[in-house]
Amino acid sequence: MCMSKSKPTPEVFEINIDKIVYGGDGLGRHDGQTVFVPFGAPGDHLRVRVIESKRNFKRAVIDEIITSSPMRRPAPCEHFGICGGCQIQHLNYEAQLETKVGFIRESLRRMGHIDWTEAIPIIHGEEWAYRARAQFKIDHRNQKVGFYRASSHAVEDIASCPLLRSELNEELAQLRENRNSFQTINEAVIAAGNQEISRRYGNSDEAAIVTQTVGELNYRFDANTFFQVNPGLLEKMVDVAIGNARGELAVDLYCGVGLFTVPLSKQFQEVIGVEGNERSARFAAENVSLNGSENVSIYASSIEDWLIKNSGGDHEVDFLLLDPPRVGIEPGALSDIIAMKPLSVAYVSCDPTTLSRDLRSFMSGGYSIQSITAIDLFPQTFHVETCVRLKK
Questions:
Q1: What is the CATH number for 372?
Q2: What count of other Cβ atoms lies within 10 Å of the Cβ of residue 257?
């Protein structure tokens, strides 16, 4: 007689959550081993069930909240914990801000070996209805429209998202109503400007152009180009990054559609913007012209190629602004940037781990950190924007 093997009984134990780590998981220790618990909150006492066990750590899910953290709140969104868009809705907003400053300090220490003891102020705005851009997923087989579930390509059916501005929730409602008209399309990217809406369906290059005002400046872009999702904080972010910096030459690497390039043109005699995405570079040139800046040169080039051709130039760079993608600055480009010896640097980053790695290189190259400021562009998620000002 063949006997079927029974599944092993999952390991269950009680644990205290000490902190939230970058990525959003709660962290505690059991029998000397690190345990990661999604949706845990610092101060929680939990009964958890292990779902993954490695030599150095375990992953577990919450079976019971025995004692609730004072930082914890009921998540306002019914999809929280299933939808992959948010990780820390269960923390009150003050705790979210404190947690994100902790992400930056921990990354500086662990990745950059930088013990920053001074204050890290965090700039924030509305915690809800802030997103002006969304990527909706369409599942025709199951008649669902929404966002991917966490760690999955399955679509969570969502009628309304509390992170979206009202006009994007209206777009979501229309997409749900008319989804049968998009039988060959499984994605819609929607971007809102001051008045207009830009829509990209599937892989189409077609998208209307919108205008977003930031302070006294205007920026044109479309749903095919990157623009920050939280326009309500952009004026403050630009001010943190540039401040009262002035001089003869400023260089803006990874300049996108010119968010920083245009305001730099008002404070420097000459500005150079470099962007690897040709579509974004075209918008950058258009935005420079739109705002009456005649002292700017935009180069549609990879950062590495532009640096190879220009890092040995005779012109002293007074101010260098860096806003790289999540992976940070490419190693070869970073050494060329430091070799340029800009007098001042502003590094804007959406990932504190790669930021900290790159800062270590700047400090080894003779730079010192002047200030570190966090900007909470992405409430309810683990993501945080950081601006670091450095001097040679």
A1: 3.40.50.150
A2: 28
